[in-house]
Structure formats: C-alpha cells, structure tokens
Amino acid sequence: MKRLLSFITILTISASLLADEGMWLPALISQRIGDMQSKGFKLTAEDIYSINQASLKDAVVLFNRGCTGELISDKGLLLTNHHCGYSQIQKHSSVEHDYLKDGFWAMTMEDELPNENLVVDFLERMEDVTDKVLDGYTEGMTELQRDSVVKANSKELIAEATKEGKGLRAQVEALYYGNQYFIFVFRTFSDVRLVGAPPSSIGKFGGDTDNWMWPRHTGDFSLFRIYADKENNPAPYSEDNVPYKPKKYFKVSAKGVKEGDFTFVYGFPGSTREYITSDAVHYNAEISNPHKIKLRTHRLDAQRKYMSKDQAVRIMYSAKNASVSNAWKKWQGEMKGIRKMNTVEVKKEYEKRFREWAKGTEYEGVLDQLAGLYAQLEPYSFANDYYRESVLVVELPAFARRIQRMVEKGEDPSAAIAAFYKDYYLPIDKECFISLVKEFDANVPASFKPEYFTNTLAQYPTVEAWADDMYTKSAFISEKDLSAAIAIVGAAQGDLAKAMDDDPAIKFYKALVDFYNGSIYPQYTSINKEITLLYRDYMRGQMEFDKEKAFYPDANLTLRVAYGKIAGYSPSDAVYFTPSSSIEGIMQKDNPEIFDYNIPQELRDIYARKDYGEWVNENGTIPVCFIATNHTSGGNSGSPVIDGDGNLIGLNFDRVWEGTMSDVVFDPDVCRNISLDVRFVLFTIDKLAKNHRLLEEMEIIR
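The structure assignment produced for this chain is given below.
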C-alpha cells in the first residue's frame, strides 16, 4: 500500500495547481474551487456537489447511458440535444407523421410520448473507495490475484450501495489506470417521455456538412419529461405515473453571454486518452483513423445515395447515418489536430526526458516495455479495426446471426424482426457489402482472414457476384421471405436454428465472427491488458516526474466538471472566429434545394418580420450558438453550460473540428466546445412551437 499512499499524496499536490484544461471529479471540486472563483464562479463547492443537501449535481442526468441532460423545471422537464433524442424521435416517425422533418410538440402532458428502453440516471453520490477495493491486496500478489481482489471487493461495495431504495445501481470505476477507485451510485428512471423537438432542419441544421464545424447554427435540442410513481420513485411506464419532482433544477438565464464570461460544463464525458504514449498516438493518427475514415466513407456514400431519393429511406437511415458520420468526421479533425500540434514528436521528447529521470527507479524500462507491446499489438489492432468497421457491420449477416442465436436460446424473435425491417433497405446494405468486402480483402493480411472468406471469394468472378448470390438466396432479405422460411421449417417440425445454418448470410457472419473471436480478439485483448497494467506504473511515474502538471483522470462516462470562458479562436493564419453566431447565419445558409439547409418557412417569415419577441439581444438579433474553452468529449452532448451564478446559459453539443484531438491532447488556443445558446431554445419554443406551457414551467431569469 506504500505505492497507493504515495500516489494519493502526488494527486493532492498536483490537483491544487491551476489550469483551465481538465475534467474534474465533482466530489473533489473543493481542490479547484479557488481557481473557479477567481475566474468568475460565485457559488461554493457544496453548491456544485453535495450528498447532504440539494446541489447542482441533482439537476444533471446521464441520458440513455451515452449523453447528458438537465432538469429545467420542478415537473421533471428535461433538456438534452436533438441528436441525443434522435433515435426516439425517429422511432415515433413515419411517412404520415414525420417528426424528424416536421418536429414534434406535445401541447399537453397527455400528448407526451413514452419511449421504450430509454433511461436516465441521477448520480446519488460518488466516493473514493481505493482502500476498500484493494483490501486484502499485498505487494507480492500476481495481477490475476489482484484482479480477483478488486472484483470481489467491488461486488460487495455495489451490493451494499444498492441494497435499499428503488432504482439504485452502482459501478466501481478505476481511475488513473487503477491507481485509484471510485464508486458511483445512481438512481435510474425508466419512464421518460418525449415532450418536444424542433424539425431536423433546425435541430440538425447543417447536417454532416456543419458537424464539428464553427461557425455553427444548429438548434440542437429536444425536450423530455421524467415520470415517477406517486411517491416520486422510479417506476416502469404507467398511465398512473406523475411528473418527477427533482431535488434541484436549473434556472434558465435569458440575460445573454459575451466574450470572456465564465462557463462551467457539468456532464458525463465518455472517453479520453490524455496520457497515452507516442506509439499509441502514432497508430491512431497515421494508421487506424485513415483506414476507418475510408471504410465509413463507403457506408455513408451508399446511405446518402438512396436517402436523397426517397423520404421513407431517409427516415429509415437518418439515425444510422448520423451515427456513422459522427465519428467519421471527428477522426478527420483529430488526425489533423494531432499532426498540427506535432503530438507524436512532443510525446517522444517527453518520453526521452522521462527515461532519463526514471533510471535507477522502479519506473526504469516501463516505456520500453510499452513500446514493445505496442509493436506486438499493431497487427491485431489493425485487424480489429477492419473487422469492426467492415465485414461485421454489414447489416443482413449480423441480423441473421442474431435471430439464429435468439432461436437457439428459445427466445421469441418477432419483436427484433419487426424492428430490423422497419429501418432496413436492402440496396444500401448490398452496396455496403460489396465495397466493404473489397476493402477487407485488399487490406487485411491473409493470416487474419478465415479460410471460408478466401475460399468463398474464389468461387465467384467478382465480389458483386458474391453479393448477388447472398442477397438473392438468403431467407433474411425481407420480412416476408423470413416469415415464409420459418413457416416451412415449422410445418416440417424441423430444428429452425439448425436449418438456418445453411443460409448464406449466416455462413458469412459466423465464419468471420468465429475467426475474429478465436484468432484476433483474444490476442488483441491480452496485449491490451498488459499495456493497461503497465500504464498503471507509467501513470504513477508521470505524476512523480512531472509535479508541476495538473493531472485529472481520463473520462469514462462519469460525472465531471469542466470550466473555462467564452472565447473565439484563430484556426489558421489571418483567420479569427468570433465566439457567437446568430439567426443571420441561418438565413445566409438557408437553401430550399438542400434538405439539411431547408429551414421551415415559418422561420423565414419570422425573420422577415423580425418577430423575435423578448428573446432579441442587444444587437437586435437572435443568438444561436457560442463557443468556449471548456474541455469536453463525447458524452458531454446535452450537458448544461452554466454561468457564474449557476444558471443555465447553454447546451453543449459539439467541439470545433480543429480541436477534436482534445481526447488525446488539449490545445488551449483552438480547443473549443460548441454550445446552443439557451435563448434560441426559448425563442424556438415561443415563436415556432407556440408551446407557452413549457415556458411557464421554467424559472426564466430575464
């Protein structure tokens, strides 16, 4: 335990240093509060996080285990991004009721729409449990023994934390690569209903073209409501449920923002890798990202080709397309940013100095060991990337195998079948199969391909011929064909799961996934596990070596605080971006010929009349978005952006393209988070939705 005590001492020292960069644990925010207050924050650490009284943390939720949301009324009204609620909006949409295209607004609570499998989690508390997790561990234990101790102790801690109270769940998370452990206890609500969403031409304005870019003019918000039982406890959907009464909700500030104002983002950043070595950065920027970008380009090209021709197909593939596109564009910006900052060489120089310092210490050789493991890992990482981004993402084979597995387990597949075909278009999938199989064959070494793949490909003159065969003969090409095939086997009283073995789509997926699971993934995970173990030592060594640096734990979808200020930036020579955008930018981009830029006619009319109501700013316009220096990541989508008084001023939804490398390296000159100005939310609800009951619910500071 001497190493642990040493680490905690180092952590306390480094956390007291001042820096805007970082994603800080709310339970330890007292170590940062002085710096926050010096930059404009007027509240206390207890106001941010408390387990003894209501605090700002009680107004923030983990939305659907991937985004963030915040409470903005005493009736459980929840604000998050449009793209976070996109799949729910899409599921409620049809050609007859196209809520993606036209928007949706519940004019009464009775009109609010339930959403199957949508959950929100409130953080009840977080606690450092390092001593408890490592209780029973001694220095002489093997890593396997240590892992057993950690798992057993974590299981007990989780059981104890969740034994009383409805809807409780808990998780123990390793921070700093296992040098520290925290338990996070949540309360989960599962009756969450759609209240409102603007048309996609507002909520997704600019589409993929504007994604990750500044200036931005996207009204990226949607509204939900949390429902509870009559005792205000979590409960499954029921007509008897009532709006949840939160411990805390945000007051909404319509006062506006200006450059230099303090900003505070409270949310659940997903994943960062700030402390990885130059070898890892090089692989990501120069090998992995370029290939993954190319593979996703094929998928996006096929989707866009057919989505542009047919409204029904556009609805089917809207959520899928957004999901594929998001990382595709982010990887491009990340790659560019890493190169621009010369991150690999900077890290190599740092590592050179670390090696010199580490001579004669317990950390001597740790970087050489990591370099050796990364060399072993690279071919497996490359194969892993290709399997996961090409042959295993083709829809038909993956779905066919999923249905077979359900049948094998005796589960009823009817709901899964209906859900799949509702959003499936064979021509898109077939084109993806052709292009992805070609890339897989051209780039993956022979030793990383199953014999099935090589032998089957040799049977056809072209990949197109293979696709023609599969997408003609498979019983899974349509819901009608699948139902007929199931009926035939049922009539013969045959083994349905076994009969599916001969389907060409299942043969394809099984052969590839079995080879992946047997020959690639075990090696990939084994080497990565060794790397992670070494990072525990390297992390501790960095903190001893670099005592002037403020270290914060990498993001892992747990609640964090990030603070900064509203600021513009210069992405290149002679170019400076101001930190705010307005409705004028929407009108300049407006184009009825392009779906993503074709705004509602009513917005054009409002602009022509300058009918902005009370939401107009001092410049006589409606603000739309702003940028700030907050350190954010995926998962922060939907996070509340708060002013120095703790009031809601915006809704985080993106980062600027030049700063997407902030998951790996943060550059204060260009790393900016993009937020929707809450005044545009209020304007949209008032003037476009005319849903004044929602405005009356909020406590608006004017």
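Interim note for the steering committee: Residues 13-19 have pLDDT under 50 and may be disordered. The longest helix spans residues 504-545.
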